[in-house]
Specification:
Layout lengths: L1 H44 L1 H4 L4 H5 L3 H29 L1 H18 L6 H15 L2 H10 L4 H12 L1 H19 L8 H23 L12 H12 L5 H7 L5 H29 L11 H26 L7 H17 L5 H22 L3 H4 L2 H33 L3 H23 L10
Helix pairs in contact: 1-8, 1-9, 1-10, 4-5, 4-6, 4-7, 4-18, 5-6, 5-10, 7-18, 8-14, 8-16, 9-10, 9-14, 13-14, 13-16, 13-18, 13-19, 14-16, 15-16, 15-19, 18-19
Length: about 450
């Protein structure tokens, strides 16, 4: 009895030490990586705020032309995604992320000076090429530090940067558009592109100085902490039988994961790129007019709620990591509420339903990434994660383009958003089928 209690006490002490170490890693890495992702998402999505605040009029953009300019980012992003992540593994996370930051910062600032739809589309395409590899690179980088039993919860903490980029970025963009109008002779929407591109260049310096390539290079870890962490992460390697069935990255399972992520990303960007335009359409309801800053604050509400839901859901999902329902439930919630929003009357009811949709989409994203990071062996993880994100990122191209094209063709946003809801439901079905057919080692793979 005494020996049993002693063993239990030793295990409890080891758990406390492990929790402290993971907390230490999280404090060192997640704020910087989250800020990097926040800035990247802001630079790719701020075009949505520029559109109703002078850009579409200045460049004579139709809804479909705006959708193409918004979505073409993801064509460049997708083409370069896999080679970029393979280069990250070869050259190291720090050097390659600095390269990404510098190139995207330069392109983002130069977008302020486009004078035609063609130039805008070219700038957006180059921005996608420059930024390619950022998110999958970060996801892969975190697999070098975090074992699977804590990864889902801490990934949710990282991914909260996504809704925060809009919750904070939309009011910030509104302030810049309204109060920086005339800066260097530029209208507000151009000043927004210029000023919001600068943080990427500043972050390149910070990443070079502060981000280690992995645990071995982390001076803030003791030698014992490095060895323990590397050993714990190594335990996440699938069993040999699983490796033979799921090794590599160019597999049907990887493509299925990519198509599932496509539907989730489609829902995210259909919401992101057209919500500011929907809010601008509230003008005149009940005789109320909103300032640019007020519209930014309204736009932030669904994402602020989504940030809270993302953290809560990530913590809940950690109890059953990799379970299909943790992705399926929020995807279905978003898929159902997208078309419901079309039939609400009045700004308040519409925003309530849109907020529920945002909660569903945003909650699905971090828990989804528990699947590819666990289903792919280490030798295929870097390229496999990039391929999943490549296929998913095409949803970022398709969502604004087809939503805008369908609006121009039919005169209504309803067909485009019905399509969005359907794709989210399809993602839920794919994840359900994929997890039912996933091979299981003796220990849970996720």
């Amino acid at each position: 009895m005494t020996s049993t209690r002693a063993a239990e006490a030793a295990r409890a002490g080891q758990t406390i030490a492990a929790d402290r170490l993971y907390a230490k890693v999280a404090r060192r890495l997640l704020p910087l990586l989250g800020l990097l992702y926040l800035v990247s998402y802001l630079d790719r999505s701020n075009i949505a705020f520029a559109a109703p605040n002078g850009m579409n009029e200045a460049l004579n953009l139709s809804s479909s032309a705006f959708g193409l300019a918004s979505g073409i980012f993801f064509l460049g992003y997708s083409v370069v995604e896999v080679p970029s992540n393979m280069a990250l593994r070869r050259f190291g996370a720090r050097a390659w992320l600095v390269r990404i930051l510098v190139s995207w910062g330069v392109v983002a600032t130069l977008t302020a000076f486009v004078t035609s739809a063609g130039q805008l589309q070219t700038a957006r395409l180059l921005l996608g090429v420059a930024e390619a590899g950022c998110l999958p690179g970060i996801v892969f980088y975190l697999t070098l530090w975090l074992p699977k039993n804590v990864r889902t919860r801490l990934m949710a903490v990282f991914f909260v940067a996504l809704p925060l980029s809009t919750a904070l970025g939309a009011p910030l963009s509104g302030l810049i558009v309204q109060y920086a109008d005339g800066l260097a002779g530029l209208p507000g929407w151009r000043a927004m592109f210029l000023l919001e591109g600068v943080p990427a260049l500043l972050l390149a310096v910070v990443v070079w100085r502060a981000l280690p390539d992995g645990p071995r290079e982390a001076r803030w870890l003791t030698e014992a902490e490095r060895d323990w962490l590397l050993a714990r992460v190594a335990e996440d390697e699938p069993e040999p039988s699983v490796k033979r069935r799921g090794a590599g990255w160019f597999t049907p399972r990887t493509f299925a994961l990519g198509f599932a992520y496509f539907g989730i990303v489609y829902g995210l960007y259909a919401l992101s790129f057209f919500l500011p335009t929907i809010i601008a359409g509230f003008q005149g309801d009940n005789g109320r007019e909103f300032s640019i800053v007020e519209r930014g604050l309204i736009n932030a509400v669904p994402y602020a709620l989504g940030a809270v839901a993302m953290l809560v859901w990530g913590r809940r999902a950690q109890r059953t990591p990799g379970a299909a329902w943790t992705v399926v439930l929020p995807a279905v919630l978003a898929g159902v509420t997208v078309p419901v929003a079309l039939y609400m009357h009045g700004p308040l009811a519409t925003m309530v339903v849109i907020s529920v949709c945002a909660i569903g989409v945003l909650s699905a994203i971090p828990v989804f990434w528990a699947l590819p990071t666990a289903m792919l062996g280490k030798e295929g993880a870097a390229a496999g994660i990039a391929l999943v994100n490549t296929i998913g990122s095409l949803g970022g191209f398709a969502a604004p383009y087809f939503t805008g094209w369908l609006k121009d063709w039919t005169g209504s946003v309803r067909p485009g958003l019905w399509l969005t809801g359907g794709l989210l439901i399809c993602s839920a079905l794919i994840v359900t089928a994929l997890r039912r057919g996933a091979p299981r080692p003796a220990e849970e793979v996720v």
